[in-house]
Amino acid sequence: MSGLTLQQHTTDDGPPVATRGRDTGRLLRGALVRLGTALLVLYCAATVSFFLVRLSGDPVKLLLPPDATAQQEAVLRSSLGLDRPLFTQYTDFLRGLPRLDFGNSLFYNEPVRTVLADRLPATLQLAAAALVVTLIVAVPAGIFAAMRRGRASDRGVMTMVLLGQSTPPFWIGILLILVFAVGLHALPASGYGTFAHLVLPSITLAVYSVAVVARLLRSSLIDVLSSDHIRTARAKGFGPLKVVLTHGLRNASLPVVTVVGLEIGSLLGGAILTEQVFSWPGVGQLTIEAISHRDFPLVQATVLLFAATFVVVNLLVDLSYSFLDPRVRTSR
Q1: 158 near 215, Cβ under 8 Å?
Q2: For every residue of 48-66, which 3-state class applies, written as one string?
Q3: Who is most buried in 27, 144, 172, 242, counting CB within 10 A?
Q4: 188 Cβ contact list (under 8 Å, min separation 6)
Q5: Cα–Cα distance between 286 and 57 in angstroms, integer?
Q6: What is the DSSP string of 27-38?
Q7: Is the confidence at residue 5, as pLDDT, over 90?
Q8: Counting runs of H as helices and runs of E as strands, what totals does the chain give?
């Protein structure tokens, strides 16, 4: 035999070793690229928050009484490290990020990590409850509207979806308080600690997400239901609901999973206004307090927390594609 022959070693239960090696290398490079992109996004968020928050003014004037002397302001500014060059403050801030050391809160006079740890569980509880409400309401509504396409019931669902997507969440919160707390005395208007306190804030926070997910699921399902494999399933005698749940829903789930992932980050960010309306002691309300007090370290930490949430959720959504659609797995 003349020439050189490249042999690929195979195993009895898998693809060629060379092919698997190339796939592993491609997946590793993709993971490194995603990780590098995530770190770059977090660095940009940290830098932008550091410089923008300092445009709000001098926090020393808010921490001291109005009749404080210039000497007292200078002493406090020096004790807080705000008299140092801006570049020095910036490098110190970046140096502490790998250790999650954001410094001390100017207003609470405690480590920022401690302040966030006290408020984060309340926000996570609210966001989780809103996500549950979103999935319980949006998925059946989207499926129902897709199966009843063009009928009066479909138009009714889409009208409600449009109203939910167009109405400001804080207005919905105020309306729910007026009806269920003031009018019916069925639920508390504010506070934290019991399931009853969670009902109105979670519904308020979920309204926009319900509208987005239901509308996208309906559109995606309508496209899938017109495909050949759905017609084949119908020809085999499967009922409409079984066709949708068994053959249509998974194929329509990719864009929905993307939006749900983005909505998880939006639920945490959107909790700012909702927590203000219902006096919910979470990170959203803490962010408003930090901005009003010009608490530089605390504002920077909350911005990074929201940015990190979006980055992590987007990464998880990207990885979930391989499990939902094998075609995505083989194309990488």
Answers
A1: yes
A2: HHHHHHHHHCCCHHHHCCC
A3: 172
A4: 181, 194, 196, 197, 200
A5: 19
A6: HHHHHHHHHHHH
A7: no
A8: 14, 0
Q: Which has the higher per-residue pLDDT, 187 or 63?
A: 187
Tokens 């990190």 identify what position? 308
What the block records as the tokens of 43 is 């660095």
Average pLDDT, the chain: 80
Structure tokens at 91: 């490098």
Residues 6+ apart with CB under 8 A from 222: 146, 149
What are the strands, taking DSSP E only, across the chain? none
Amino acid in the structure at residue 267: L
Number of residues that this document lists for the chain: 332
Does the predicted model carry a pTM greater than 0.90? no
User: What pLDDT does residue 67 have?
Assistant: 82
pLDDT digits (tens, 9 = 90+) for 125-166: 999 999 999 989 998 898 888 888 888 888 888 888 888 888
Place of tokens 């570049």: 87
